[in-house]
Specification:
- With 405 residues, the chain is of the alpha+beta class.
- The protein is 42% helix and 21% strand.
- It binds a DNA duplex (18 and 18 nucleotides) through helix 3, helix 9, strand 9, strand 11 and strand 12.
Length: 405
DNA sequence: TCTGGGGTCCTAGGACCC
DNA sequence: TCTGGGGTCCTAGGACCC
């Protein structure tokens, strides 16, 4: 039997902001994505008391809580805080799996002789987290990840919930299926149509019936209903070795836009960001996907598989822009996205041909500068022409090649 | 002041080959 | 004298998570 902890940081982005700015403390506030359009990413507990929730639109939040303070997200701040937390978690076990920037699974099986039973571990972990970061978290303790995650959700904020194996049937019996991680609104609806509302009912439904309706997922659903989950905790070291499947960026435009040249400029900017991340991770990929979202929120994608892998912004852009040119825009565009999949690890090697070599080194030099001074300190001529990135230090800089963009 | 941005996995269907 | 079936690759889209 395993002992798995699920740590869920409470209102993470909001708490980090409150920690760094005393004026925000004990006030209803929320972290938001962009200034103009978007949704609430993380409301503080003071704001939640007014009914403000993640995903809510600004005007809705303002209506519920007129005094709410909206703070733009600062991802560097949150990833720094996340690294700080990882260091604390790793004191208890090397088996730490990062589930998202503010959640982790810890396998503490066999750590009892060093740190006490799982509840004692959760208590010391929470104490050390508070002392060193002034952040609180909820902890679920259970024999597997599914139940640990369920537990951390049951007592927020700042709770500890222990689910013992012999309690599982009772916990699951009346639990709504939607409370399980992996069962979203759609599955909930389909299950309800079959007369299945609780995990107890799900666990008693024959596998055949579930498989007939949901395919391979049926077996997994049956197990979930019973609280069974064999998925192991994958340590950070192992996660690093695992290859990413895709990397992409997207952005909602400040205003819906029907102007192709403007869309292309945003696209180039996104391709540069994707290329930079690919190179930093040592990846290149063979499939380029373009995603568009129209004014009415209809979202679709078109992709193209290439003969060779790419990881340079301009190569990604050449493909994405060609896809865009082949499309008829039926409505103004709300969101533009690009992603590269079919990833493979790149061997570090010096390219054979002079012009290719020049491009690789140029890109590396740009990466270094941008890593040090922030995104788009140095960028391609077309982007600089937009004249909206204040910190561009070399607006006339252009790649060595003779390609026109 | 209509609805963010980053991912993963799965499925269905067409093209193509043997 | 008219059309089976398996396998692979590729694209599009949907469901789910945070």
């Amino acid at each position: 039997m395993k002992n798995i902890l699920h740590i869920d940081m409470n209102a993470f982005f909001a708490s980090v902001e409150q920690r760094s700015a005393p004026v925000l403390r004990e006030r209803p506030m929320a972290v938001v994505g962009s200034e103009r359009r978007g949704v609430i990413l993380s409301p503080s507990y003071e704001a939640r008391a007014f009914g403000v929730k993640t995903g809510m639109m600004y005007h809705e939040a303002r209506r519920m809580c007129p005094d709410i303070v909206l703070v733009p997200a600062d991802s560097a701040k949150y990833s720094h805080a996340c690294k700080q937390l990882i260091r604390i978690w790793e004191r208890f076990t090397p088996l730490v799996e990062l589930f998202s920037i503010d959640e982790a699974f810890l396998d503490v099986t066999g750590c009892e002789s060093l740190f006490g039973d799982p509840v004692q571990i959760a208590v010391s972990l929470k104490e050390q987290t508070w002392e060193e970061t002034k952040l609180t978290c909820s902890v679920g303790i259970a024999p597997n990840k599914l139940l640990a995650k369920l537990g951390s959700d049951m007592l927020k904020p700042d709770g500890i919930v222990l689910i013992l194996p012999h309690d599982v049937p009772e916990v699951m019996e009346d639990l709504p299926v939607k409370d399980l991680c992996g069962i979203g609104p759609n599955l909930t609806r389909h299950l309800a149509a079959m007369g299945i509302r609780t995990c107890g009912e799900l666990g008693r439904t024959p596998i055949d019936k579930l498989t007939a309706r949901f395919g391979v997922l049926g077996e997994r659903l049956h197990e979930m209903g019973l609280g069974i989950d064999d998925d192991p905790v994958v340590s950070l070291a192992e996660q690093d070795e695992e290859d990413a499947r895709s990397m992409g960026h997207s952005m909602t435009l400040e205003q819906d836009c029907g102007d192709r040249s403007l869309i292309e400029r945003h696209l180039l900017q996104l391709c540069e960001k994707v290329g930079r991340r690919l190179r930093r991770g040592g990846y290149a990929g063979r499939t380029v996907s373009l995603t568009l979202r129209y004014s009415d929120f209809h979202t679709f994608s078109r992709q193209q598989r290439l003969r060779r892998s790419v990881n340079h912004g301009l190569d990604i852009y050449a493909t994405a822009a060609a896809i865009l040119q082949g499309l008829t825009l039926e409505q103004p565009v709300r969101l533009v996205g690009v992603s590269v999949s079919g990833l493979e690890r790149q061997m570090a090697q010096v390219p054979l041909f002079e012009d290719e070599r020049k491009r690789t080194f140029t890109a590396e030099a740009m990466d270094e500068i941008n890593d040090r001074y922030g995104d788009f300190t140095v960028t391609w001529g077309t982007l600089a022409a937009r004249n909206q990135h204040e910190r561009i230090i070399s607006p006339s800089w252009r790649p060595g090649g003779d390609r026109e963009y």
